[in-house]
Amino acid sequence: MGAASLQPNATPQRLRLRRPDDWHVHLRDGALLQAVAPATARSFARAIVMPNLSPPITTVAAAEAYGARIRAALPDGSRFTPLLTAYLTDTIDPAEIERGHAEGVFTACKLYPAHATTNAAAGVTDLARIEPVLAAMERIGMPLLIHGEVTDAEIDIFDREAVFIERHLAPLLGRHPGLKVVLEHITTAESVAFVRQAGPNLAATITPHHLHINRNAMFQGGLRPDFYCLPVAKRERHRLALRQAATSGEPWFFLGTDSAPHPRSAKESACGCAGIYNAPFALESYAEVFEQEGALDHFEAFASLHGPAFYGLPLNDGHITLVREPHTVPARLHGGDTTLVPFHAGQVLHWRLAEEG
Ligand code: DOR
Ligand code: ZN
């Protein structure tokens, strides 16, 4: 036996990656924005920021003002760039979307089926109503980001993503073969398979929480609101399919945290909000999965290369370093008067982002 085989597959102690991006995040507004923006800016060079504020971001002016509020919430010297999105409604004006894209204000549009999730009441009731916008987006090369769940009360909540693909996504891609679409936060083996066969204009983001938990997490020892999000976590076989997809090195799967903070009081309530706040340790959480899957060599592509390639944006310059150093995630985080429970609260993670400089 040669010396080289004494430590087969030894885990590296440091990982150096091109600066990554988060292709799906909720930064909120007001005090919550102040509390959470630094966590995303610490780890990511850019992030696609969701427009589901109250009221939602539907105009270029509203997006510009929101962008300024985000920048004001960043720590001094931060190099983070928010990439803003427009919230599609039944009555959205295609000219406003085109102008926002041409002026570099809107990177993409977000489609929430009406009532699908938090602040989705003003979402789209029927895809036929936004046909002119979709045609314009296809023409100008502007990506459509989809919350892919049907909202019909008679469809079981665990089936809503698969039914959306069948009823809405497949026909939509047929009508608009040139439209770039991101199926956001996929949660099922069916979605993984659909993305794989769809061709280069369809991609998917995968969250850290859907890689770590299955639906049992919501019910372990009692009702656990910190593991409730939408789309809801599914069976173990789906989690395993997502882990395989994320770590496969295939270019249509990339990083999108769907970090969705809600104050602890809004989560721990008779009608608790959907959303998992994973931004503070998102990269560390993904790194854990890639290590467990023996795929650390694919981590940079998932975190830093596939997203920009799909969006047609330049790669970031500069690098970050993750060091293998176990640490316990705090049980609670406090920002101003707000208490937030981070994903992995109280658990040990094995990678830590080294501070710059
Ligand atoms: O869990 C979720 N939270 N899913 C969403 O789609 C929206 C998000 C939020 O904004 O809270
Ligand atoms: Zn989201």
Q: What strand line-up does the widest sheet have?
A: 2-3-4-5-6-7-8-9
In DSSP terms, counting alpha (H) and pi (I) runs of 4 or more, how many helices? 11
CATH topology: TIM Barrel
How far from one another are the termini? 42 Å
Order of helices and strands: EEHEHEHEHEHEHEHHEHHHEEEE
Question: What is the CATH homology-level superfamily?
Answer: Metal-dependent hydrolases
CATH architecture: Alpha-Beta Barrel
Average of the residue pLDDT scores: 96
- The shape, in one word, is globular
Strand content is 15-25%
Q: Regarding CATH, which class?
A: Alpha Beta
Structural class: alpha/beta
Biggest β-sheet description: 8 strands, parallel
C-alpha Rg, in Å?
Answer: 20 Å
| Unreliable residue stretches | 1-5
Ligands in the model, by name, code or SMILES, are: (4S)-2,6-dioxohexahydropyrimidine-4-carboxylic acid, zinc ion
Structure summary, number of beta strands:
13
